[in-house]
């Protein structure tokens, strides 16, 4: 067994604190990784505090992992010791259902294995995530990372990047499309960057006028204050696609009416309470679509990383020490970060 040191929450009310645990030794197809950086996702906070009512304690969060390969199994062919690699939201899936066969492991009919707080199929118990000094993962779920980019700023691409890239790619966003991004947080700022790189005309919707300058700098062509009815009315029936990243209940109709005939709004944020139901009439009379999307499969995640390397795209980050993770959670609740915290895991040894 491999001894690991990380930070864990032991109850929904407790702060994250140092925690020693064991991972499996690398098998024939496994890669052992020394974790260098781990992004901080809002899902980490939801899980640590059991807001989704599914947490198994103790929980070690973290699924935006960048690290260096320190050991490989005897049958590993894609990776070598010393390589910088990534691990995202999944570390396994059934590999036999129709979705897995299509490279859509995120929709595995038998349920994918999350990087943390999921069943550990090899040694029992639960999986532990990237707020730790090491991790062992099947090579099928390890990703190549370009040396062109800052590895710390690549970490959030493994969740925030793929969560926005996947729907933009699936709905074939490109040149000549008018695309809306709702919200400029960890997900939204990646959506702006990626949609811009795809060649779309990008409009950022925000309730905060103070975010307008940032949005334009990140690649938005226009900024609309969504609380301003007059500004919203200027965009009626004009969008090909809207990516809604907001993870709080809000009026979806305010955005549905901005779609063209056959336009689609895709939701990627999961609110604790449901959104108010949109008007069926707004869907029917323009044949509009309301959809959802969940991360991406491994093949598509690699495609996203390669796309970001080609277009020099990384996340906007604020680096923190692991000892400051509880402060970071409180700041994240106040949206006091531009736009993603990343933990320097070297601080774990301090």
**What oligomeric state best describes the polypeptide chains here?**
single chain
CATH topology of the largest domain: Quinone Oxidoreductase, Chain A, domain 1
Structural class: alpha/beta
- Beta-strand fraction estimate: 25-35%
Describe the biggest sheet?
Answer: 7 strands, mixed
The ordered H/E elements are EEEHEEEHEEEHHEHEHEHEHEHEHEHE
Total helical elements: 11
The radius of gyration is 20 Å
What percent of residues adopt helix (DSSP H or I)? Answer: 10-25%
How many beta-strand runs?
Answer: 17
- Tally of distinct domains: 2
Task: Provide the CATH architecture of the largest domain.
Answer: Alpha-Beta Complex
CATH superfamily descriptor of the largest domain: Medium-chain alcohol dehydrogenases, catalytic domain
Per-chain topology:
Blueprint: E1 2-8, E2 17-23, E3 30-39, H1 42-48, E4 65-72, E5 84-87, E6 90-92, H2 98-101, E7 113-114, E8 134-138, E9 143-144, H3 151-154, H4 160-170, E10 178-182, H5 186-197, E11 201-206, H6 212-218, E12 222-225, H7 229-233, E13 239-244, H8 253-256, E14 259-267, H9 280-284, E15 289-292, H10 298-310, E16 317-321, H11 325-333, E17 340-344
Parallel strand pairs: 10-11, 10-13, 11-12, 13-14, 14-15, 16-17
Antiparallel strand pairs: 1-2, 3-4, 3-8, 3-17, 4-5, 5-9, 6-7
Helix pairs in contact: 4-5, 4-10
């Amino acid at each position: 067994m491999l001894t690991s040191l990380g930070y864990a929450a032991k109850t929904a009310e407790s702060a994250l604190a140092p925690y020693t645990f064991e991972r499996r030794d690398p098998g024939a197809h496994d890669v052992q990784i020394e974790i260098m950086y781990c992004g901080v996702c809002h899902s980490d906070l939801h899980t640590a505090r059991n807001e989704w009512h599914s947490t198994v304690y103790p929980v070690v969060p973290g699924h935006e992992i960048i690290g260096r390969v320190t050991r490989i199994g005897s049958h590993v062919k894609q990776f070598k010791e010393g390589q910088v690699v990534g691990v995202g939201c999944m570390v396994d899936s059934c590999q036999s259902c129709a979705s897995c066969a299509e490279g859509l492991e995120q929709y595995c009919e038998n349920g994918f294995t999350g990087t943390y707080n999921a069943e550990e199929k090899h040694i029992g118990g639960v999986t532990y995530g990237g707020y730790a000094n090491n991790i062992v993962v099947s090579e099928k779920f390890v990703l190549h990372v370009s040396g062109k980019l800052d590895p710390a700023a690549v970490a959030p691409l493994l969740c925030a990047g793929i969560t926005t890239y996947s729907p933009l790619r699936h709905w074939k966003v490109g040149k000549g499309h008018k695309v809306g991004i709702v919200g400029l947080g960890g997900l939204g700022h990646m959506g702006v960057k990626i949609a811009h790189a795809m060649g779309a005309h990008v409009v950022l919707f925000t309730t905060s006028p103070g975010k307008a300058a940032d949005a334009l700098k990140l690649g938005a062509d226009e900024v609309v204050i969504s609380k301003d009815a007059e500004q919203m009315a200027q965009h009626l029936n004009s969008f090909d696609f809207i990516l809604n990243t907001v993870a709080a209940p809000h009026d979806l109709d305010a955005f549905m009416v901005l779609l063209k005939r056959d336009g689609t709004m895709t939701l990627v944020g999961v609110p604790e309470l449901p959104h108010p139901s949109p008007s069926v009439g707004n869907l029917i009379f323009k044949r509009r679509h309301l959809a959802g999307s969940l991360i991406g499969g491994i093949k598509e995640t690699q495609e996203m990383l390669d796309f970001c390397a080609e277009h020099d795209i990384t996340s906007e980050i604020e680096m923190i020490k692991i000892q400051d993770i509880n402060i970071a959670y409180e700041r994240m609740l106040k949206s006091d970060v531009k736009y993603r915290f990343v933990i320097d895991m070297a601080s774990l040894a301090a």
